[in-house]
Design a protein that fits this description.
Layout (H helix, E strand, L loop, with lengths): L5 H33 L3 H15 L4 E7 L5 E8 L5 E2 L4 E3 L7 H7 L6 E4 L17 E9 L3 E9 L9 H30 L11 H18 L3 E8 L2 H8 L1 H17 L6 E6 L2 E7 L6 H14 L5 H5 L6 E8 L6 H17 L5 E6 L5
Helix pairs in contact: 1-2, 1-4, 2-4, 6-7
Bound molecules: 3'-deoxy-guanosine-5'-triphosphate (GH3) and magnesium ion (MG) (2 copies).
One magnesium ion binds next to loops.
């Protein structure tokens, strides 16, 4: 047998390990890219990361801790326990004050590059383990662009007692950087997707999202023989509001209107801004017979609401909307047909004096 020196063996081991980590990183990135393409959720990304840290890198448990908005608390976004089960924890761990968790604080504030303890020599008999946690554990920061720390990756070898070396920590640190980049790519992706469906001014859904939702709602109702109602809401005399109080006041009112509409329908209802001062509300499971109560509520909420423009309040001037209502009950119809019908009803409301709904129309099947 050929003789290999201890140093050489260690070097070899190190390079094998490094290769293993590199493979894991590449594998994770391939999975992340593929998953982004398929529309991966954050939870599934976390599962991917956790599996590659435990199964791939050989740690027993792993947890992804992320900073909460406001940077005062940290929370276990997802962890994997010693039996390989995923675990979440709703508790927020404070970073400041007397209850602060110092390990996290040190890492999150960037005071230390890593945290490492090995209690291997002090192995405690099983019956005492509830008192003295036997842990070989390590924690490294999860960083994103420009070194910003967004959380921590914590690992331990609970129950296996495997020693965690400096080399393990350094590989984990590199890995955590990749994790940070993966989380950031997903967040950017999600943000972009959201921007593509949300109206920037009002925060309501935009026209594109509305069109998609209306089409799928029609399909759903056709298949399951359900009904829905579409309400269009158009602000009355909005041009004059802009002319009198300025465009910024107009914008503030549109934002306010979107919120008012959302607040006065169910959470399952879909509110979108479909034109300049025109909104659409899609109400699933709402047949025409149930609609008058919603219509009255919406008209009243706007009419009696206080617009967020002090000059208007001074002038005792309010806002009203006119509503167009079209329901779907059965048969094959297109999104255009139902929209056109709601628009007809809206036109009638305007014609009849505004601040009211037009006739409730029901779309007739084609042919
Ligand atoms: P009607 O009661 O018949 O609906 O009258 P109206 O003045 O509301 O309707 P018209 O269609 O004549 O004018 C719509 C106005 O809405 C004109 C436009 O300046 C205003 N508007 C559209 N989009 C925006 C926006 O994003 N911000 C502001 N401030 N105003 C907008
Ligand atoms: Mg209008
Ligand atoms: Mg209009």
């Amino acid at each position: 047998m050929a003789f290999i020196s201890k140093t050489r063996l260690l070097k070899l081991e190190k390079s094998v390990k490094r290769e293993k980590v590199l493979k894991q990183e590449i594998l994770m990135f391939q999975q992340v890219v593929e998953a982004l393409r398929r529309g991966l959720s954050q939870e599934n990304l976390f599962k991917l990361i956790l599996s590659s840290v435990t199964k791939g890198l050989g740690f027993k448990r792993c947890g992804i801790f992320l900073l909460e908005p406001g940077d005062r608390y940290i929370k276990l976004a997802l962890g994997i326990d010693k039996k390989g089960r995923f675990e979440k924890n709703k508790d927020r761990l404070p970073l400041y004050g007397s209850q602060a968790h110092n390990f996290f604080k040190t890492i999150i504030l960037g005071r230390k590059k890593y945290f490492l303890t090995n209690n291997i020599e002090k192995r405690v008999p099983k019956q005492h383990q509830y008192r003295v946690p036997v842990l070989n554990n390590a924690m490294v920061p999860i960083q994103v662009g420009k070194g910003r720390i967004i959380g921590a990756l914590a690992v331990d070898n609970l129950s296996t007692y495997r020693f965690i070396s400096r080399a393990d920590v350094s590989m984990l640190t590199n890995y955590a950087t990749q994790v940070g980049l993966a989380i950031q790519s997903l967040n950017t992706h999600t943000e972009m997707e959201k921007m593509a469906t949300i109206d920037a001014l009002t925060g309501a859904h935009n026209r594109r999202a509305f069109d998609e939702t209306l089409s799928s709602e029609i399909k759903r109702c056709q298949r399951y023989r359900r009904s829905f109602t579409l309400i269009l809401a158009d602000a009355d005399f909005f041009k004059s509001v802009n002319d009198t109080y300025g465009h910024d006041a107009g914008d503030a009112i549109l934002k306010w209107l979107a919120k008012l509409l959302k607040d006065n329908v169910r959470t399952m209802d879909f509110v979108a801004r479909v034109g300049g001062e025109e909104f659409a509300v899609l109400l699933p499971e709402t047949p025409p017979d149930n609609i008058s109560v919603v219509v009255r509520r919406l008209l009243k909420a706007v009419r009696e609401g206080v617009p967020p423009v002090p000059a208007m309040v001074r002038d005792k001037r309010g806002i009203t909307v006119s509503l167009g209502v079209a329901s779907y009950r059965k048969g094959s119809v297109t999104a255009q047909q139902i929209y056109k019908l709601a628009d007809e009803s809206l036109y009638q409301a305007k014609h009849d004096g505004r601040n009211r709904a037009g006739r409730f129309l029901t779309v007739a099947p084609k042919g």
